[in-house]
Design goal:
The structure is a single chain. It contains ten helices and no strands. By secondary structure, it is mainly alpha-helical.
Length: about 190
């Protein structure tokens, strides 16, 4: 699987952050549309998001290396455990598919609780939660463009597999992307 995986290109800064005119408040009344925007941006800007997270991880890791290592291990173990539970427990799988945001919040809350037992709460907040919050804010506010939609359609059809695509598969979000791709292609073929 890893041999077929491609790393998405690092998008130029003027595409990643082009100016305020390409950002808009999401429609909180239409959660499906907001979820699609977030997923599309996560897939398209994944390497940029990874770079931002690495910079924050390095800063926090430099200030508290053991705490950052402990936080990374705890969050990774909780995430792997929740993915395993999602694959082996029908109730967890259905919840994860219908409520991916709540599922991630649950993983983060569990990680927070476990880290609070070890005294690593500040590292968790600044080293792990802060980059995720920055990524979620950008993915929620950044409007999609044609290149973004085209790349996501290629990813959804399975022509290209990226690390974020694998994570979306683990969160059971690719099926929704496939339906979106089908609808997109049907609309273009009817014109």
């Amino acid at each position: 699987m890893a041999a077929k995986m491609e790393l998405a290109p690092l998008r130029p800064w003027d595409d990643f952050y082009p100016g305020l005119d390409r950002f808009s408040k999401p429609d909180f009344g239409d959660l499906t549309k907001w979820n699609n925007r977030v997923i599309s941006n996560l897939l398209y800007y994944q390497t940029n998001y990874f770079a931002v997270a690495v910079v924050v991880f390095l800063i926090v890791g430099f200030l508290n290396p053991f705490g950052m290592f402990l936080g990374g291990v705890v969050v990774s173990l909780v995430f792997m455990g929740s993915v395993w539970a999602g694959e082996n427990q029908a109730m967890v799988k259905n919840f994860k598919k219908k409520n991916p945001t709540l599922f991630i919040i649950g993983v983060m809350a569990t990680s927070y609780f476990l880290l609070s037992l070890c005294g690593g709460v500040m590292v968790f907040i600044f080293g792990i939660t802060f980059p995720l919050l920055l990524i979620l804010i950008h993915a929620s506010l950044r409007l999609r463009n044609i290149k973004n939609r085209l790349e996501n359609n290629i990813e959804g059809v399975g022509l290209k597999k990226t690390p974020m695509g694998v994570i979306m598969d683990l969160l059971d979000q690719q099926e929704e992307q496939m339906n979106k791709v089908r609808d997109f292609l049907e609309s273009k073929l009817k014109k």
